[in-house]
Specification:
seven-stranded mixed β-sheet, 13 helices, globular, five-stranded mixed β-sheet, alpha/beta
Length: about 375
């Protein structure tokens, strides 16, 4: 079954009432029979609930996985995975890792006895050199955020496997991580899966329903980073239109990137769909489309970048990505103190507007 069909039908069951849309179950606790057995297979919301269960049943086949677990946020999902590493472990992260995971690696993981190195994973030689006997996790992000670096996922996962390490891909919906050899796919369902800037969530999808998935399910139950039923319901609703939204947003982003290419107000333009991007050939091989994120650097430096963001009329000045509306942000300001993002960088999340309108807005903003 193809991705577009799976997105609509995976996890879909008709409620006994005949309702085609899934009901929302807000109960925090569930009844038992006279012998103490759960009447419907659920006991307490922090452990399992019907909406969470239905979303997980929908997510696993989207990646070709055997199991999925959902969490309160993408960060919660990623941190839960990191919590399974034993003290003394070593993890390798990309040099431009999402700033939240970079902060966790520097500020939290040392307290758990876990050491990290940051490497440019687009350079497979650098990744290979960073692996050690104690390496337990290789963390892959591609295209990266916000520099949109492209990593050869199959090759990076192969290096991790040869080193006896787990591999995880923080992935958009346009590349099937598990088919590329990754052990775990990480999604911030806040973004494209939800798709409407109104829900927060995260998910881990596993190639195998094994000991790791069981440990993480127990950890979620004990520590409580669970996804609320309404959030699970919203993400499931968003999944049903994911394929068509991603197709339109990716096509629009390509049109916008082509229009911006060579613009005199820009010193750099980052979009893997452009042949000039150093990772273009790899992206073309492992992605079904090039995504809806674009970054550029203003030729006039930080002040020019801030001025362009201030002048937009159609784009919304806000952080995050993956919604139906196009967003723009001066990324270093959004990340705050300690940001390693270039001060002249602007990040775009392309929505569902007509590309000509977005291009016109950017052209007048760049002046």
């Amino acid at each position: 079954m193809r991705f577009e069909t799976l997105a609509v039908h995976a996890g879909h069951t008709v409620d006994p009432s005949g309702s085609v849309a899934p009901p929302l179950y807000l109960s925090t606790t569930f009844a038992r029979d006279e012998q103490g057995a759960p009447l419907g297979g659920h006991t307490y919301i922090r452990e399992t609930n019907p909406n969470q269960e239905q979303l997980e049943a929908a997510l696993a086949p989207l990646e070709g996985g055997e199991a999925a677990l959902v969490f309160a946020s993408g960060m919660a999902a990623g941190i839960a995975l990191l919590q399974t590493l034993p003290p003394g472990s070593h993890a390798v992260l990309p040099d431009d890792a999402y700033y939240g995971f970079r902060a966790a690696a520097l500020e939290v993981l040392p307290n758990w006895g876990i050491r990290t190195d940051f490497v440019d994973m687009a350079d497979l030689g650098a990744l290979a050199a960073a692996l050690r006997p104690e390496t337990r996790l290789v963390w892959i992000e591609t295209p990266s955020n916000p520099l949109l670096k492209v990593v050869d996922v199959a090759a990076a996962a192969g290096l991790a496997r040869d080193a006896g390490a787990l591999s995880v891909l923080d992935t958009p919906a346009l590349q099937r991580a598990l088919d590329l050899g990754v052990d775990v796919a990480l999604h911030s369902t806040t973004k494209y899966f939800g798709g409407h800037s109104d829900v927060q969530g995260g998910a881990l999808i596993f190639a195998r329903r094994g000991e790791l998935a069981a440990r993480l399910e127990h950890l979620r139950h004990i520590l409580g980073p669970v996804l609320a039923p309404f959030n699970a319901w919203l993400v499931l609703r968003g999944l049903r239109t994911l394929a068509c939204r991603m197709a339109v947003q990716s096509a629009t982003a390509l049109a916008v990137a082509r229009a911006l290419a060579g613009h005199p107000a820009l010193s750099h333009l980052y979009y893997p769909g452009l042949p000039s991007h150093p990772g273009h050939d790899v992206a073309r091989r492992q992605m079904s489309a090039f995504g809806a994120m674009i970054s550029f650097r203003a030729a006039g430096g930080r002040e020019a970048a801030l001025a362009a963001v201030a002048r937009v009329r159609l784009f919304t000045r806000a952080t995050s990505l993956g919604g139906v509306e196009s967003l723009i942000e001066h990324r270093a300001t959004s990340e705050g103190p300690g940001s390693r993002t270039p001060q002249d960088l602007v990040r775009l999340s392309i929505g569902l507007e007509h590309p000509d309108d977005l291009i016109a807005d950017l052209e007048q903003a760049l002046g």
